[in-house]
Amino acid sequence: MNIDEKYLLRCIELGKNALGIAAPNPMVGSIIVHNDKIVGEGYTSVYGGAHAEVNAIQSVKDKASLTLSTLYVTLEPCSHYGKTPPCANLIIENQIPRVVIGITDPHIKIAGKGIEKLRNAGCKVIVGVLEKECREHHRRFLTFQEKKRPYIILKWAETMDGFIAPNASERNNGIEPFWISNTYSRQLVHQWRSEEQAILVGTNTVREDNPKLNIRDWTGKSPFRIVLDSNLSLPENAAVFNDSSKTMVIHDKNFQKKSPEHPVYEAIDFKQNVPEQICEVLFEHQIASVIIEGGLQTLQSFIDKSLWDEARIFKGVSQFKKGIEAPKISGNPLQTKTILTDTLTILRND
């Protein structure tokens, strides 16, 4: 590993701090090195705030040293005016002579223009350092930009004998979740919710479990809740409609929303290509990542269309012998770990 790769690794580490706060912006990390010493660091602020390069430059105490420094960044500096001024302009204004970039930005407004602007101003620009690692780090943003859909994470818990829920007769009285995974696994799920922009469930999951779909066992911002309710049959007092987070209802185009006081409503045609249409709606709403937590029909529909990027599957120790079978899925195993009595398997759809 050469010195540029070493410093890019630090940028990736920094960028992870923006997970859950920067989206739909990418979680960029940036450092500034002077005389083989890191003199400035930064990562993308909460959406609408300063970008990583700005934060890194502002953190440098001796601004005069910038003219003899190298700026490292995981993603090409922006070159256009958005919610903030172009980062490329700031780099040029501070006369930073050398810039090392992990990957180019595929965004239509950038796509090499930031690199071109820097080079035209006399900066020495190196692109493609730790490209594979930077693409992995920016996988949510790249999926959104290149595939025009959110990064999709499927999540469920299944019993040792392969069921995600018991028969209705085996449930406790009342509408509530039937837990398969243990407390520590459930806390991890709340951490995951804090890291992604949105969470999606089908009608039956809301009707049978009445989930809140917010964050309770972790700190952070609750995800944007998305509920599939084709004929608008869910009760208005369902927990997903409380004030703990915003909610979108995706319904069939043949049904009219109940009242203007209800959450955001989006209509699609539930008779064809439902997963694709859902992705189109989420893309239009600038949602770069979503966790799909159920139920079986919803999960399987995305699997069958190969519209998923990760699957995170808990296997508990209980057995139902009968009930609702777990989704059928195949993918490339990325990780397997034990969480007390549970086994977590993470698959990638590569």
TrEMBL record:
Residues 2-126 form the CMP/dCMP-type deaminase domain. It holds the Pfam family dCMP_cyt_deam_1. Transmembrane segments: none annotated. Its cofactor is Zn(2+). SUPFAM superfamilies: Cytidine deaminase-like, Dihydrofolate reductase-like. PANTHER family: 2,5-DIAMINO-6-RIBOSYLAMINO-4(3H)-PYRIMIDINONE 5'-PHOSPHATE REDUCTASE, DIHYDROFOLATE REDUCTASE FAMILY PROTEIN (AFU_ORTHOLOGUE AFUA_8G06820). This is Riboflavin biosynthesis protein RibD. It comes from Croceitalea rosinachiae. The lineage of its organism: Bacteria, Pseudomonadati, Bacteroidota, Flavobacteriia, Flavobacteriales. The gene is ribD.
